[in-house]
């Protein structure tokens, strides 16, 4: 359900989307014209070319 919604956003023109799953400690990264990338245990996410100076910390304290 969530994956299909993320694909819907990309199809509608969203350039970058993250599906964060804290239970599995994974992030799925959705980008225009690219395959979905899955990262395990990421501590940082970048805005890539869409938001070049944006960074999201996923570290737990």
Shape: globular
* Residues in β-strands, percent: 35-45%
Strand order of the largest sheet: 1-2-3
Q: Which consecutive residue ranges, at least 5 long each, have pLDDT under 50?
A: none
Helix content: 10-25%
Q: Calculate Rg over CA atoms.
A: 12 Å
Largest sheet properties: 3 strands, antiparallel
Structural account:
- With 61 residues, this protein is an alpha+beta fold.
- The chain is built from 1 helix and 5 strands; from the N terminus they run αβββββ.
- The strands form 2 sheets. The chain has a 3-stranded antiparallel sheet with strand order 1-2-3, with helices on one face. A two-stranded antiparallel sheet has the order 4-5.
Brief rundown of the structure:
The chain is an alpha+beta fold. It has 1 helix and 5 strands. The model has no long low-confidence stretch (mean pLDDT 92).
Which key features would you list for this structure?
alpha+beta, two-stranded antiparallel sheet, 5 strands, 16% helix, three-stranded antiparallel β-sheet, 61 residues
SSE arrangement:
Layout: H1 2-11, E1 16-21, E2 26-31, E3 37-40, E4 44-47, E5 51-57
Antiparallel strand pairs: 1-2, 2-3, 4-5
